[in-house]
Write a structure and sequence with these properties.
Length: 197
């Protein structure tokens, strides 16, 4: 009788070891995720599935160029705006700078870019604004050319912050009134688990 009990316990133990993780994974998948602590959730909106940037070469209005290669190897915070920069725009440029600075040693793994869409010829210069952000790469492009080269962004409005991973995938975005605290938490988590960039 004792042998039977031992062998039964042994079989139950084996069953738990092999099938326990499977049942737990199924439970995580099928049970609504309201039980999750809000601090573990993303603050930005995930782009699902992530949208890979195709090969492109964009010539800016001042003769410079951007290509897909410049979005690889580092995490990129990209702000898409136009040739004018309102208060929301300035606030987001400031947030992007502050978020990067607070990453400490990981700050070198993140780059900031401003893609400006030129919509008309007679607009005020925003050179003074960008003088405050010398490490941010900024360039202005013709909107038609951008839509053709970067179709992934056509379904998203401008004046938002986008996160592009080191493999060149558009994977998250933030509305113009997002907080720097949320961006920082997301980036810290991404940098921690990422083996690239």
């Amino acid at each position: 009788m004792e042998k039977k009990t031992k062998s039964r316990s042994y079989l139950l133990g084996l069953f738990a070891v092999f099938f326990g993780p499977l049942f737990f994974a199924m439970w995580l998948f099928y049970v609504p995720n309201s039980w999750l602590n809000s601090s573990t959730q993303n603050h930005g909106t995930l782009v699902a599935p992530a949208q890979p940037l195709e090969k492109f070469e964009l010539v800016s209005l001042d003769g410079g160029s951007w290509s897909h290669e410049e979005f690889k190897g580092k995490w990129t915070m990209l702000y898409i705006g136009n040739e004018s920069c309102d208060l929301y725009c300035e606030a987001n440029l400031f947030k992007m700078r502050q978020v990067r600075l607070t990453l400490g040693r990981d700050s070198e793994r993140v780059q900031r870019r401003y893609l400006g869409l030129k919509t008309n010829e007679n607009t005020e210069s925003i050179t003074k604004i960008f003088a405050k952000y010398p490490r941010m790469q900024a360039a202005w492009f013709n909107k038609v050319a951008v839509d053709k080269a970067l179709p992934q962004f056509q379904s998203f409005p401008i004046h938002q912050v986008y996160i592009i991973d080191p493999l060149g995938n558009l994977m998250m975005w933030y509305p113009k009134d997002a907080t720097s605290k949320g961006m920082k938490k997301d980036l810290k988590r991404l940098l921690k688990v990422s083996q690239v960039g």
